[in-house]
Amino acid sequence: MSDDHIDEESGIATTGHEWDGIRELDNPMPRWWLWVFYASIVWSIGYWVLMPAWPALPGMQGHTTGVVGNSERVNVAADLDALQSSRADSFAELESASGYDVIEADPVLFRFALAAGESAFGNFCATCHGAGAQGFVGYPNLNDDVWLWGGSFDAIRTTIRYGIRSDHPDTHFSQMPAFGADGLLSREDVRHVRDYVLSLSGNAGFEAAALNAGGEIFASQCATCHGDNGTGDVSQGAPDLTDAIWLYGGSAEQVEASIWRGPFGVMPAWEGRLDDPTITALATYVYSLGGGEIAPANNGAGGE
Amino acid sequence: MSTAPNRESAAPGIRQHRVEAVNDASRRKLYKKREPIYPQLVQGKFRLAKWVFLLLSLGAYYFIPFLRWDRGPSAPDQAVLIDFEGHRFYFFFIEIWPQEIYFVSGLLIMAALALFLVTALFGRVWCGYACPQTVWTDLFIAVERMFEGDRNKRIKLDRARWSFNKAWRKTGKHIVWLFIAAATGGAWILYFHDAYDTLSHFFTGGSPLSAYLFFGILTFMTYTLAGTMREQVCTYMCPWPRIQAAMTDRDALNVAYRVDRGEPRGAHKKNDSWDGRGDCIDCKACVVACPMGIDIRNGSQLECIQCALCIDACDDIMLKVDRPTGLITYDTDVNIDRRIEGKKPVYRFLRPRVLVYAISLVIVSSVMLFGLTSRAHLDVNVTRDRNPNFVTLSDGSVRNGYTLKVINRTHDVLEYSITIDGPDGLNWRILGQNEARGLIVDVPAGRTQDFRIFLTVPRSAITAANQPVTFTVSPQGSDETLSADTVFLSGGSR
Fold it and tell me: Residue B391 and residue A142: Cα distance in Å, rounded?
């Protein structure tokens, strides 16, 4: 360095750079700082030996695993196991709970069941029923008060366990004929039945002749399952046709399509795939969504 | 280096360049060896003030965890506690919840502003008196002095060969240092869990791993920083000495040498006249007293932590040679220049930056105080379900789901009555609620409780897609009410 880089006031060399008239004194580093630097190099060598550090060396798969064999993947798995076993007591309690009342009466267990149920619902059920259990056309809304196969806590649990039209021997099963597609009814007959069915839930404006014809066909073809008044039959999963809820849509076209092809909704059986306490937690969660039948009767008027 | 007699030519016809290698080792050193510093004990008012502050601050640090403060059975009774498990910060009557972390931010802002203000007025008093690095270093030097004697004895001991005398003095010093360091690390963990509980478990190995880890870190740091690193921390590691340059100005008080009085310096013989010379007898008492090992007579320097020990050292000497004290004193850069010019000193404490710092500090502390005194013991808010937004039931009525959060910051279980205002014919249901209790709910002490509430409105009462709903919560037997507004969605009337 030339003498130009000596600061006149202090007599100390500068770095030789200048920024807007500001120069930096080139004071020496303390020696110990250098030792800290060397120590950190030594530390990193030790770290390479002990911990996973380098990507695959030639002729080796994956990466260097390190002498202590630490693996974040294994750690996370162990954490998850620990979490699961820490919840074992709650799951056991859930398994032995005889019914919804017992679960609901214990606030801690109830909260646990709801949380476990919500999480399982997101993993296994939301694909069809939606994240908020709001359902889609063909996939029931679990928030409302319509339950094709029964909406009591036990009925919901049974449905989750064995499924609907699943491959489980105890599954709920029923089948509506494809009246049009299989040639049981003509297109005109199907339309008459459609008008009659729509009239059951208070829709008006249909021709009397069509309603009469439809009514006759309904009595002979449909009433076996849906009942003489069209109010349905939970034991066969036959929907109530007089209410405001339509699983496959309530427009004239949608109702006609349902009669023509005969819906065949399938829900898998979860027994064997989910353990019993998880199924109970799911049933608790679904029941608590607000639509479960025999809802606790502390309804009251609003206001004061 | 060139020794060629002819600077212009190295050999006939070959010019010699005037240049040197930039990394020529003979010219400069890249790394600096640490110079050992052996501060000498001084007596005086600043030394006394520092002893008093040392006792008070370390006493507070070590004993505050043992103070108790009764908060009832549902909360810990430690006066100052950072309770990570319970998600609370307790400070005597103040209790801070996680969602009120801005109080802690406010406290830090206040601390920063106070530091700026003090620095603008009096220089680095934080560094000189209050910084833990200074306080613990002071204590560690006192221990060193106890075992190895004052400056001259320590220098002699360090130069001496190893002997039993040297060995036991050095060993004793390090044992006491380690003990103080361990007490420092030990006291630290008492702030995060009940102090008595921690103490009873700590020595039997029953404390959580994190307690031992932080105990170890703090012990190591105290021992290293205060015992062996000392002035190196302030000079090389701490950012504050760099920041302080922006906080002070020429009107801030600094520990300064009165050049106008001291120079020209020189040894003074008995019966010599003081006329025509400075008061500084160049005894260097100020240098040996300095824990940073610098010479204050060179003016303000970045190494100076302004501990004022050189003032005590110099005053002592001035009294002995029968000259007025205050040759080294708190003074401003402006006055140092004015005195040299023979003008009277002026002190301007009310400067714009001082006012800005002071006003900011007052504003922030007022806002904090207002926030602390006026914050509610209760809080309520409501979230409407968004997925699904609403549910149509089989009879055509519509249901909405809500989550009502009720926060009870008191230390008692509170019973609340909920009032719901909304569309006509509204029906409600609280999930998991015992039917006999109706709209009366309990919230445990110091807890936030969620309530799932379903509201059902008959089709006939639906007049718009969006109808207002208000939840009003009132503790039983109190006039206090809290409301949360939301809406009832229905997709509109048909």
Answer: 9
Closest to A240 (Cα-Cα) out of A251, A253, A252, A228 = A228
Determine whether the interchain pair B395/A243 forms a contact, defined as Cβ–Cβ distance below 8 Å: yes
In a domain? residue A15: yes
Question: Given B22, B388, B392, which is nearest A132 (Cβ)?
Answer: B388
Dump pLDDT digits (tens) for B237-275. Answer: 999 888 887 888 889 999 999 998 888 888 888 788 888
In 10 A of CB B35, how many CB atoms? Answer: 7
User: What is the span of the domain harbouring residue A7?
Assistant: 3-50
Domain count, chain A: 1
Residue A152, judged by CB atoms within 10 A of its CB (0-12, 13-18, 19+), counts as middle
Encoded tokens for A60:
């080796």
Of B388, B393, B438, the CB nearest to A300: B438
Indicate whether A252 belongs to any domain: no
Contact A145 B419 (CB under 8 A): no
Per-residue pLDDT of A168-184, as tens digits, reads 999 999 999 999 999 99
The pTM (predicted TM-score) of the whole model is 0.73
Task: Give me the residue spans of the domains in chain B.
Answer: 36-375, 378-489
Mean pLDDT, to the nearest integer, of B9-32? 65
Look up residue B214 and give its amino acid: F
Helix (H) or strand (E) holding B58: helix B45-63
**Within B191-330, where are the H helices?**
195-202, 209-222, 231-232, 240-247, 259-262, 285-289, 309-320
Q: Nearest residue on chain A to B298, judged by CA atoms?
A: A10
Residue A157 within any structural domain of the chain: no
| Contact list, B455 vs chain A (CB under 8 Å) | 302
- Could you tell me the pLDDT band of residue B373, with boundaries at 50, 70 and 90? confident
pLDDT tens digits, one per residue of B315-344: 999 998 888 999 999 999 899 889 888 889
Q: Residue B432 is nearest to which of A104, A300, A303, comparing CB atoms? A: A104
Number of Cβ within 10 Å of residue A79's Cβ equals 10
What ranges in A25-125 are assigned the alpha helix state H? Answer: 31-50, 72-86, 88-96, 100-105, 107-120
* pLDDT at residue A299, as a whole number: 44
Place of tokens 């001496």: B160
Residue A105 lies in a domain: no
User: Where does B378-489 sit in CATH, by number?
Assistant: 2.60.40.10
Burial tier of B42 (Cβ tally within 10 Å: 0-12, 13-18, 19+): buried
Among B37, B230, B394, most A C-beta atoms within 10 A, so best to mutate, is B394
What DSSP assignment string belongs to A203-262? -----HHHHHHHHHHIIIIIHHHH-TTS--BGGGTBPPSSSS--TT--SHHHHHHHHHH-
> Chains A, B: CB contacts under 8 A, how many?
116
Per-residue pLDDT tens over the stretch B347-368: 998 999 999 999 999 999 999 9
Confidence category of residue B66, pLDDT binned at 50, 70, 90 = very high
Which H or E run contains B489? strand B482-489
Q: Where are the alpha helices (DSSP H) in B263-346?
A: 285-289, 309-320, 333-340
Tell me which chain A residues have a C-beta less than 8 angstroms from the C-beta of B391: 134, 141, 143-144, 290-291
Chain B residue with CA closest to A108: the answer is B432
Bridge partners, B360 (sequence order): none
The values of phi and psi at residue B121, to 5°, are -85, -50
Residue type (1 letter), B379: D
Query: H-helix or E-strand containing B97?
Result: none
Mean pLDDT of chain B: 88
Distance CA B42, CA A79 (A): 58
Give me the residue from B236, B427, B431 closest to A301, CB to CB. Answer: B427
pLDDT value, residue A293: 60
- Cα angle: A283, vertex A286, A287; to 5 degrees: 80
Summarize the confidence of residues A93-122 as an average pLDDT.
90
